[in-house]
Amino acid sequence: MIDVLVIGGGNAALCAALMAREAGASVLVLEAAPRAWRGGNSQHTRNLRCMHDAPQDVLVDAYPEEEFWQDLLKVTAGQTDEALARLVIRASASCRDWMRRHGVRFQPSLSGALHTARTNAFFMGGGKALINAYYRSAEGLGVKVRYDAPVSRIELEQGRFVAAHLDERVVEGRSLPAERIRARACVVAAGGFESNRQWLREAWGRNAEGEWPADNFLIRGTRFNTGVLLRNLMEQGADAIGDPTQAHMVAIDARAPEFDGGICTRIDCVSLGIVVNREGRRFHDEGEDFWPKRYAIWGRLVAQQPGQVGYSIIDRKALGRFMPPVFPGAMAQTLDDLARQLNLPAAALVETVGTYNAACRVGTFDHTRLDDCHTRQLVPPKSHWALPLDSPPYYGYPLRPGVTFTYLGLRTDATAAVHFSGEPSPNLFVAGEMMAGNVLGKGYTAGVGMSIGTAFGRIAGVQAARAAGFQHSSSERHDDRACV
């Protein structure tokens, strides 16, 4: 029998697998995706939000615990478990040395990367390189990995994990039989339900116009996160947490693919111009705070607009101040022509821009700080970086909601145990997106998803190994306390 079974193949799952194996447990990883698409949403990431009290290697200045906590508190509007959130924050301060030991390399923040040089440690080579490093390390340590292995259900006995079930399936033209895989302990880290269109429809329902908003969502991440195990465990009585409509949802280029668009589809010029809906009207403050703290609200805002579409409009002054999108925007010398290219009502767009320009109170523009350029007597306002759009050419980018991961998940505690009627399971643990809703009730700040996955993946791995009868060495336990 396997000591520890890990279900999932992304950052949190691999952190769990590595920690359990370091404790001496035999470990099997079941990844639903084929090898070429392994890694879940983690393959599309690029950084980890890190607490630090002084400059450290690739991180400049300081980003202390209280500031990290206040940033998280603000974006979640208080919908977070403070104890678990602070656990994640403290873990982020010391996990990088462990990550390096498993082959992860870091680099300074890229120019134009959301003002994150102080708060976020970037992975050299991005999330794909991180995932590949973890798989190399895991396989080198003797962790067994199986691809094309989607688990359909978990077998439980009074809250205790017994076995994982795989249905009959066809892989590369071969028919594979159903399987029942037993283990002494299990970590579920199989992601949310963002790729399950029907579940998204159930969560969002119809809007006032009779539309299914979820039909117009694009999925920034993996197509393999369908929430099968999340629903299965909830149906078996696992305690749930979170709102099914809350998610890390970004405004991305409407021309992006349905799945796996990743970071390059994001539109990062929102705070440097205005955003209008298909009627040519603004609907939210584009400059209310730094972009890393606000970029993940814009998908939800666009989802609430008619047709679930929006348009980011800038002029020549914004160029060079944001990461260029992968798709070129519409470009025109006049607003009328830009409106025609974007299929927007020209008169409405011209009026919206004129009203906005007249309301701008320009002070000292500085897109690297909360400057004093704002609007006056304009609804909605623009609180910072409000410069008139008066310098052609003008550029426009169509937007759609891009779902990264959903927040509905399994309730847990500092041990990462799955709870049933308030009681922790003795041998079933959860990590990553399947429990992120304990920390993220709503909102997002750049890199915190990887912080959560790394912290709870490591905790889950330690606890699963312990449940299977294995303890870390004294030196590893010390490192575990520092990170967890």
UniProtKB/TrEMBL annotation:
Xref: InterPro entries: CobZ, FAD-dep_OxRdtase_2_FAD-bd, FAD-oxidoreductase_2, FAD/NAD-bd_sf, Succ_DH/fumarate_Rdtase_cat_sf
All residue ranges annotated as the FAD-dependent oxidoreductase 2 FAD-binding domain in the record: 3-439
Coiled coil spans: none
SUPFAM superfamilies: FAD/NAD(P)-binding domain, Succinate dehydrogenase/fumarate reductase flavoprotein, catalytic domain
Keyword Flavoprotein part of the UniProt annotation: yes
Protein name: TcuA protein
Domain of life: Bacteria
